[in-house]
Amino acid sequence: MKPYDYKVYVTGPFQAGKTTLIHTLDPDAISIEREMREAYRGEKGTTTTGFDLGRVVWVRKEVHHDGLVVPKKEFERERAEYDGWTTREIELRGVPGQLHFKFVRDTMRMNTDGVLMIVDSSDYGMIGDASAILAETIAAFGDIPLEVIANKQDRNDAASPEEVATWLGVEKATGMCAKDHESAREALIRLLKKLEGAGEEGGSA
Length: 205
Ligand SMILES: Nc1nc2c(ncn2[C@@H]2O[C@H](COP(=O)(O)OP(=O)(O)O)[C@@H](O)[C@H]2O)c(=O)[nH]1
Ligand SMILES: [Mg+2]
Known about the structure:
Helix content is 33%, strand content 27%. The chain has 205 residues and is α/β, with parallel strands linked by helices. The two termini are 25 Å apart. Bound molecules: guanosine-5'-diphosphate and magnesium ion (MG). Magnesium ion binds next to α1 and β3.
């Protein structure tokens, strides 16, 4: 039996907010991180060179509702509350964003159902890396559901999602603040609805 219904691959340049997003949705998410060797934008922080692994459950009282995204542990504790609801277990897999870790991203693609591509809307300097990762992702996954997410919309130097879409040459980007649960939930659900849509089309065809 599969331990989840959908695997969501979370990619994008380093410092875009992948780890933050996964921990906002699942406080028990596991991350492997090591310290950066160099300061970036004047700050010495940490960035992921391994991966993030989060588990959440998408719960809907009615299938046409957007529903809630509940951390897996919380869901297991409060399972009775969701009796009769439609539930989908989601694995969130964050991959390292540095271009030279392409081989790590490659090994983590297996069984992916959908992709969240996270971009820092306040960091135009990373757009070259973002374009490279987007091209790599599309080449590897082909026609898989993919959402481009314009993160850090809470910053006053953030470009709009429309501008971020233009930077990357994509039709559309969705604004998000990865630190905010409501915003993170909306971004994930937008992708999950596409995954459900794809499943239904396949089933009725
Ligand atoms: N203002 C703001 N900062 C964010 C947001 N998301 C992430 N960050 C910050 O951006 C930095 C990099 O985030 P992280 O999740 O580690 O990026 P990753 O390298 O893609 O995993 C951290 O300092 C985060 O606190 C956001 O939505 N708004
Ligand atoms: Mg990270």
